[in-house]
Amino acid sequence: MRKKLHFITGLLTLVLASAPVVSATNGIAITVKNPNPYTNNQSWFVYEKMPGEIIEDVATIKNQSERDVNVRIYAVDATSNASGSFILKFLNDKQMGIGVWTDVEKKELTIKPDERVDIPFRITIPENATPSEYYGGIVVESGGGADQTKYCEPNNKCNTSVSVRTRIGSRIYITVPGKISEKVTWSDFSFDRGWDGKSYLNFGVKNQGNVAYEPKAEIEIYNQDGKLFDRFEAELGDSLPGTTINKKVAWNKQPSLFGNYSAKANVSFIKKFQTASNMHGASYTDTKNLKIMVAPWHTMAIGLLILIITGFFGISHKMWYRKTGKTWANYLVNENEDIMAIAERKNVSWKLLAKVNHIKAPFILKKGQAIKVPPSKD
Length: 378
Hints:
Immunoglobulin-like; 12% helix; mainly beta; 378 residues; 5-stranded antiparallel β-sheet; Membrane-bound Lytic Murein Transglycosylase D, Chain A
């Protein structure tokens, strides 16, 4: 499907390195200097530019802490991780888009408490930029380096305190208008169940087009009689161009017994940041079906453990009875039979045979003597 590609852009301030999304961290906040007068959006930089055009804008950084903060400012590309979360790359990562196109005027500075600093930046769209949506952001990094402090003990032994380096990033989306290329392929749609008893549906979606999606799955589970067993929805995250989502979705309604089930997933690929009717066209839906063999492994494991324990105690009890002679049978000694021969034939220790029958040394048996022997096969 090919359509006219329009712009859409956005910003998200966040702490990187697996921190939650926030608008400020370590006392530093970043906003748009010149927000859109129609939306008054101070959180998003919004651009639609043709190849060769230049974007000039200003971000504002404010120190909301009570101490001086040293910061570095730089631009990076963005991507989404396997779980579908938007991520601004690190400075040492390979940059191919906004991270290369952007020049920040002030790259390092010290911001005093309650001070607000404007950071002009310029983005130059390459002449050969292809129609697509491009993702990146301006990162403000603080902590570490000059922000480290020292403390001294009474013996004049000084130690450097641990300093945590934090980053916030103004997310930028740039759309170069042109033809939409929508190409999404499936790398996985499968089922697994862990030893914890939880069931999961695994979604693998690779975006090979030039637009971003927010895929949403509507999942229906049917039992072996074809009746609806469960229905639920799941957000699969951000599917950015050139990225692959590997999302594990929990199936919380647990089948308790063995059985054959089938899963039907209707995944709507909703175009990200669609702010006006038909701006990016309607979303499309892809349907996947999956056969599921449910085996409650955790229940089986518990049952197996119970069987093993029961068997162990059963065998131990049987062995105890065998050693005490309580299950042994009566036996009349034949002429010229000795205790060693009887013990060997009955597959038992001659010492145990003597002990059970209270036979004392020199362990001589008489013809017609009644003794107890194991009920073994002769």
